[in-house]
């Protein structure tokens, strides 16, 4: 019998102590730098994304500080454009996407009864790639000429005129794209190959379904973004003219390529949110999710349709009327599966025995405010109306209703719902409710007036504006600072105490009607779970034996 020396210098025989060296968590900095455990990597992703949320939030507040009054107060227009560009890039690639990957890392193995993610070392690599990318992105402010100022969409010909920071930005986005693709491969392989025996695809929790579909979307569109920014790079340095009319190129072609990535991308940022809401609403309504199969099909439909609507971002580029009609109707069509989901959530709550703990408050808040964002999207889908509203604050209001009140609220809901399982302690319910109401009110104070500003014709990405827009802008700026402060409150008074283990101890299943395998392991979830595949009941939501 051969002997194995474990990290502590003790020898184990292979037969008697096969897993001796794996017991307990590795300690110190090595645990995090060399992390291969899905829970640790999930925690790293969540902490990283919250840091980036704060950085992007500070940029947003600088934008709102400038727009508090007409005239130029705080920054010059060039720096203002850098702020708008970097706010968008940091929030999309640094805050929202990594946060959902963090949720996926934590919850997917727990929900399907797997011991870990399929490729543990690739999982570590895909996280650590984000750090240099983020440093490069944020560091571009300190390069000659400042950060990129071409809008987060990086439209040509502006990108061809930017300073060296544009190259740093392009490189950073390549690295983040590689990270996303690796994360997606990991999620797909894990879900398809590592489910516990008896958990068929149609018995999986909705969160796993939405992430499976999202991962396929990511693999499909990330290379498209890579292509667009690589062509930008060669235009800038290697004498090509993909987007330069002087050399026979076409700047509008860039928009087509970008939005072919960009539109599925917005669904990448909302589908995991749908999954989280689909876990929480049934738990606090004490009913099974209404129309599970229709939810799965609706999610798949949204993913497929997201590939044929990209040019609704381009109604004012001079496309033929036939093209406008196609993209208008295709965009309206995508509202149907989305409405199916909202109908199903409401039907789940209907006649349920509902209670409103913080996760449910955020879930209901999500449904309400996301629906408003959906309706303004439907309005923008109408080509003749969009011609008037394109590039105004109406568009800003629309996508913040979808991305802040959509993606971000769902993440807050997911945090309050699952944090007891992660940390082993309950968050403070009163503080959670304060965070919810403070966020909901200040969010609407910030972004609701922007609909009126847009309808009145105020263009976005402008550092200055005429006097008639002053009042609504002042209201929006005050709301924005209140909203930002609410997230600082959340971190200091909700997240930190639970991370430090302060609060009442969480039971294995803190929510009465919560279903799923994640509630079958102790709180906090042990370092290793489901090392032997669990035996499941017929519904695949409980462990038997």
Automatic annotation (TrEMBL):
Chief localization class? membrane
**UniProt entry keywords in alphabetical sequence:** Cell membrane, Copper, Electron transport, Heme, Iron, Membrane, Metal-binding, Respiratory chain, Translocase, Transmembrane, Transmembrane helix, Transport
Bilayer topology term: Multi-pass membrane protein
Query: Per its UniProt record, what Gene3D superfamilies does this chain match?
Result: Cytochrome c oxidase-like, subunit I domain (1.20.210.10)
Give every Cytochrome oxidase subunit I profile domain span.
32-537
Instruction: Specify the enzyme's EC class, one word.
Output: translocase
- Note one Pfam family from the annotation: COX1
PANTHER family assigned to the protein according to its UniProt record, in alphabetical order: CYTOCHROME C OXIDASE SUBUNIT 1
Q: Its function?
A: Cytochrome c oxidase is the component of the respiratory chain that catalyzes the reduction of oxygen to water. Subunits 1-3 form the functional core of the enzyme complex. CO I is the catalytic subunit of the enzyme. Electrons originating in cytochrome c are transferred via the copper A center of subunit 2 and heme A of subunit 1 to the bimetallic center formed by heme A3 and copper B.
Q: Where is the composition biased (Basic and acidic residues)?
A: 7-22
Checking InterPro entries in the record gives:
Cyt_c_oxase-like_su1_dom, Cyt_c_oxase-like_su1_sf, Cyt_C_Oxase_1, Cyt_c_Oxase_su1_BS, Cyt_c_oxase_su1_dom, Cyt_c_oxidase_su1_bac
Q: Where in the cell is it found?
A: Cell membrane; Membrane
Whether Transmembrane counts among this entry's keywords is yes
EC annotation? 7.1.1.9
In terms of domain of life, where is this protein from?
Bacteria
For this entry, the protein name equals Cytochrome c oxidase subunit 1
Keyword Heme on entry = yes
Which PROSITE patterns does the UniProt record give?
Answer: COX1, COX1_CUB
* Catalyses which reaction(s): 4 Fe(II)-[cytochrome c] + O2 + 8 H(+)(in) = 4 Fe(III)-[cytochrome c] + 2 H2O + 4 H(+)(out)
What SUPFAM superfamilies does UniProt report for this protein, alphabetically? Cytochrome c oxidase subunit I-like
Q: Which family would the database say this protein is a member of?
A: Belongs to the heme-copper respiratory oxidase family.
Taxonomic lineage is: Bacteria, Pseudomonadati, Pseudomonadota, Betaproteobacteria, Burkholderiales
